[in-house]
From TrEMBL:
The lineage of its organism: Bacteria, Pseudomonadati, Bacteroidota, Bacteroidia, Bacteroidales. It comes from the Bacteria. It comes from Candidatus Amulumruptor caecigallinarius. InterPro entries: DUF6175. This is DUF6175 family protein.
Amino acid sequence: MKHCRLMCIVSLILCLGQARAQNFGDDVQYISGNEYAVTLQATGVDAKKKEAEAMAIKSAFNALMHTGVDGLKGGQPILSEKKADYDYRFFSDERYVNYIVGQPKTLETKKIGSKQRATVVVSINLRGFRAELQRNKQVISPSWADAKQTEATSALNPTIVVVPYTDSNDGYSFEAMRRRVEAHPSERYAVERVAETFQNHGFKTRDFVRMLMNDKTGDLLRSGTQTDDATLVVQQLPGDIVVTVGISAQRNGNTTRISLEAKAVERQTAGRLATKTFASGYYHTTDTTMLVREAVKQIESGFFKQLQASFEQMINKGREVQLTFSLSETVTDWDFDQDSPETGDYFKDALDEWLRDNAFHGIYDMSQSTDKYIRASVNVPLWNAARNRSYTLSNFSSDLRKFFKKQLGENYKANVTSMGQSMSIVIE
């Protein structure tokens, strides 16, 4: 009996591993659909024809959940987190069959070596599928969440970009980062492995190393348009959170260890979210790559939870932005204590009303002002619930320019300069 029970457990573990290792196809295309149902074309590969057809259908569901489909919700997946246990149950118990509308249509099957490849068109009940995910407490991404539900913002999954650490000797430009990873293969390896670890914990990542190495972008990154200012560089990176990875070696007799320090900051404000150092342990080796691999293994799930919690706290509170408004020396015929040239509204009242309307939870302050200078602060949201998409400081800056154009017309121009959580607005 004990032997039988042991064999059952082993079989279950093997099946679990096989289910989690399914090779879902990434060729999934949007054909048509609405908020209730969607029709997709997907390709699957497996040993037999029927298994390949089933894999194609599973691939369609997997793409909806985790990778997104071009043409549907901006290519964003339904889920912002991947939970392997739920995926295993969903596919191994064939729950997905409950959300297939009509009969899937096989367009083509073709033998590829010892495998069969099938292309299938399948229609999916989106409404029921999303209800299934929500019942099982899966985290719905903001693009798919109900914009009327304020809790949708807590599901925002930030995009991570991982970069190498540079100091004043290297410089802080893109060029300095490029030189760093080219000159130190172990640091490039560390950046790649840390990015991979973020992916394994359900975060979206951007491959910054590949961007640096890409010939098409190389000229742009080396053009000198970036200043040697770490904050400015961070603000130009393609992600919500920038994780800087630095490594250092410590020797103890004939042994060596690598310490890997990871610092996470919010891209636009450079606000620190999480900092942690992970050590490989001492080994009788000088193989830096091997030691980096061991250090990466020490990264605990708590680090990622801290990062997610910090970002979600920022979502709940918004970004506090400091604003200064002043007049150029060339403006001699108008000031802030007068009516707006274009609308005739008293300018300070109009600005106060605009700040109130655009402040997150109505949090703003405009108590310091003269006829030629105004100092204000405003909390800016990270997520635009009405439009169901992210809201950046660049979006806020653009909206502010529109306000000034409406109030001042064509005879005056608002020159907005942004630096992290500060904006300087000069009327010219």
